[in-house]
TrEMBL record:
Residues 34-77 are annotated as: Disordered. WD repeats lie at residues 84-125, 182-216, 273-307, 368-400. CDD domains: WD40 (cd00200). PANTHER family: TRANSDUCIN BETA-LIKE PROTEIN 2. The keyword Repeat applies. It comes from Pocillopora meandrina. The chain crosses the membrane at residues 12-31. Residues 419-446 form a coiled coil. The keyword 4Fe-4S does not apply. This is Transducin beta-like protein 2.
């Protein structure tokens, strides 16, 4: 009996010792976890910010890693007009309506948002939200009358039509999804557009396919671009041409023809832009559809005159070749857009934007590191006074004053006034110069 009691006491004592040791280890670990470390986040953060700046102060153009989520706090820029926040996912695309009243944006957050342009100058930016159920939209394009818009669906890989309605109480607009087009593309849709004449819709996929649809979602024609893969396609503002770029260094244009009774007739080859030595990333038309701007992997961007008699086999004319900073060429994609007044051309290079003189190719202004992620979309307001850019994973849309364009406009107006012989023309030009200078005065940009 005594031996059993001794054994029991020994067991209890051993358990107590073990428990005490465990307690001491836990306390020691807890104490050490509260002590500063040599590789603490406070010490690492400055190094990360130096390698991957987000405030635009660093001159380092090393490519930033993609896929990082969050909403970095970018500093205000002197050219900044507005920052539109609200999307909770990557922003893929944006576009202004032809009447200049709205801007639409698409996002991974399964919404399309219609922003009121007149509220850009306010602290709060109003928008109408359209939900994209069970999917998300990647591209967006307004109808000419702004009463509807179309989107490209990422998962459904087709087009969805939305209708914009005015609320009965007059308090604003509402948006409703109307219908989806049938699925015809076998590869990812990379762009969509509604013709300005309202006669047809274009969609382009990553392979070599472009589809021309009527407004009901019926296929009118299928184009094989024969460019190995498409990098971009779009419609001219006049609603006459469909153009595509791809693996080859050329941009191809087709003309979409209708009968006098507005019945679809055919799609036929029109012309090609030949001159780049590598694949074309992106292109855009001038507002009057007489010129095009292209940007290529070869380190150049070009301006072309396409106002030619293509039916007589006349080729487009190369007007100007510009060079962009090759150090930005590490990025996988670049975007280009000519302002509606054609004074300047914007080139998105990674997280930066170059504003170039369309006439001579000079870099007028560089908005450097103004987004926290690679720019995914650029769009000009119809007035040419503002440029909007989307920053992808930084979830922000930033709107910029077009100061460079105003300065070039003043120079152009002064030259025209000097050459004018009619006094009424001179007075009108002088008034336009005064108005443009007043715009610069408001922005404190003169001098």
């Amino acid at each position: 009996m005594a031996a059993v009691e001794v054994a029991t006491l020994s067991t209890i004592a051993l358990s107590s010792v073990i428990a005490a040791v465990v307690l001491l280890v836990i306390l020691y670990i807890g104490f050490k976890s509260k002590q500063p470390k040599d590789d603490s986040s406070e010490n690492i953060k400055p190094e990360l910010e130096e390698k991957h700046p987000i405030n635009g102060e660093s001159k380092d153009k090393t490519k930033h890693p993609k896929g990082k989520r969050g909403n970095p706090q970018l500093k205000n820029h002197p050219r900044q007009f507005a920052i539109l926040k609200g999307h909770t996912g990557d922003v893929f695309d944006l576009e202004f309506s032809l009447n200049g009243k709205y801007m639409a944006s698409t996002s991974l957050d399964r919404t399309v948002r219609l922003w009121s342009v007149k509220d850009f100058k306010e602290k709060e930016h109003k928008y109408v939200r359209a939900n994209v159920d069970f999917d998300h939209a990647t591209k967006v394009n307004f109808s000419p009358d702004t009463r509807a818009f179309i989107t490209a669906l990422a998962n459904g890989n087709t087009i969805r039509v939305f209708k914009v309605n005015k609320k009965k109480d007059g308090s604003g607009a509402s948006v409703t999804g109307e219908f989806d087009f049938p699925v015809k593309h076998s590869a990812e849709i990379i762009n969509i557009a509604v013709a300005s004449n309202g006669k047809f819709i274009m969609s382009c996929s990553r392979d070599t396919t472009i589809i021309i649809w009527n407004l009901k979602g019926e296929v009118l024609s299928i184009i094989d671009t024969r460019q190995m893969n498409n990098s971009y396609a779009s419609l001219s503002p006049c609603g006459k041409f469909v153009a595509s770029a791809g693996f080859t260094p050329d941009v191809k244009l087709w003309v979409v023809e209708f009968t006098k009774t507005d019945e679809f007739k055919q799609v036929s080859r029109a012309m090609e832009l030949k001159g780049h030595s590598a694949g074309v990333f992106h292109f855009s038309f001038s507002a009057d559809s007489t010129r095009m701007a292209t940007v290529s992997k070869d380190g150049t961007w070009k301006i072309w005159d396409i106002d030619v008699e293509f039916t007589k086999k006349q080729d487009p004319h190369l007007l100007m070749t510009g060079i962009y900073d090759a150090s930005f060429g590490v990025y996988n994609n670049m975007l280009i857009s000519m302002s509606p007044d054609a004074y300047v051309t914007a080139v998105a290079m990674g997280r930066s934007i170059g504003i170039f003189n369309t006439e001579n190719g000079n870099l007028e202004e560089l908005l450097e590191e103004v987004h926290g992620d690679d720019i995914t979309a650029i769009a000009w307001h119809p007035s040419s006074r503002y440029l909007a850019t989307a920053g992808g994973a930084d979830r922000q849309i930033r709107v910029w004053h077009n100061a460079a364009g105003i300065r070039i406009q003043i120079d152009d107006l002064q030259g025209r006034m000097y050459r004018a012989k009619n006094e009424n023309v001179k007075e009108r030009l002088e008034q336009q110069i005064l108005e443009a200078r007043a715009s610069l005065d408001k922005l404190n940009l003169i001098g």
